[in-house]
Design goal:
Order of helices and strands: HHEEHHEEHEEHHEEHEEH
Number of strands: 10
Strand content: 15-25%
Distance between the termini: 49 Å
Strand order of the largest sheet: 7-8-9-10
Shape: elongated
Structural class: alpha+beta
Length: 242
């Protein structure tokens, strides 16, 4: 999937000369957490988000620093913080030169960019013009809208079993001696794990195979140093109940 498939096209924007109050009211009215800032020519010049309103003089949340920290940071940093905390215009508090993407940017690159740059939204550009925005909410909607539950005509038990085995065995954490039994879409996993986190990874891999209705865990944990083994929590629970 690419940006144009999930982006919000009707983007609420604000101008650099707008006031902080106007921007805050826009964000509240339209239930958005950030606004691209565009000039009169429609060029993207910045972005403003909820984070820009956290440290504000109106609510008494300005940064308070001791004398030594002020000395180490210098007067320039203090002056920049003062403008951000007291500025009345968006141009005074916005983030300049925001990171942008194009309509053809893959979702994998979008997520990587968000994570590496610590941002929650990315403006989408075409020929220097803003045409959309991708936020974390758009990614969440993409996940929720995946057509995973569309019936698969090949999702019989034999195909399901083969796909589960393939999905698990290709990973470094794959259980030793993995065995998978599938009946009516219900999968039973057995084998040996030496790392407890491999249990959940195996279950998740099986759950993501089309046609799987439920996964039963029979994976046994073994300590490679002493040979001690522990049955799966599910099997232990069944043993206590019997």
């Amino acid at each position: 999937m690419r940006a144009h498939q999930i982006m919000t096209r009707s983007v609420i924007t604000v101008t650099p000369d707008a006031t902080v109050l106007e921007a805050a009211n826009l964000m509240l009215r339209y239930h958005v957490s950030g606004l691209p800032v565009v000039d009169t020519a429609g060029r993207l010049v910045g972005i403003v988000s909820e984070g820009d309103f956290i440290r504000r003089s109106e609510i008494g949340t300005q940064k308070k620093r001791g004398r030594w920290l002020k000395f180490l940071l210098g007067a320039g940093k203090a002056a920049t913080d003062y403008v951000h905390e007291h500025g009345r215009k968006i141009s005074e508090v916005m983030t300049l030169d925001p990171i942008t993407i194009t309509e053809q940017t893959p979702l994998e690159d979008i997520v990587s960019s968000m994570e590496s740059n610590g941002v929650k939204r990315l403006p989408v550009m075409r020929d220097g013009k803003l045409v959309g925005i991708v936020s974390r909410a758009n990614l969440l909607q993409a996940v929720a809208g995946l057509a995973r539950d569309i019936p698969d005509p090949t999702a019989d038990d034999d195909h399901i079993r083969s796909r589960i085995v393939a999905a698990i065995e290709k990973n470094d954490w794959s259980p030793f001696g993995l065995n998978v039994i599938v009946r009516d879409g219900i999968a039973h996993l057995s084998g040996v794990i030496t790392e407890e986190r491999s249990r959940l990874a195996s279950i998740v891999a099986a759950e993501n195979v089309t046609g799987v209705r439920k996964v039963h865990d029979h994976l046994c944990w073994v300590d490679t140093m002493c040979g001690m083994y522990v049955e799966s929590p599910e099997d232990n629970e069944m043993a206590r109940a019997s």
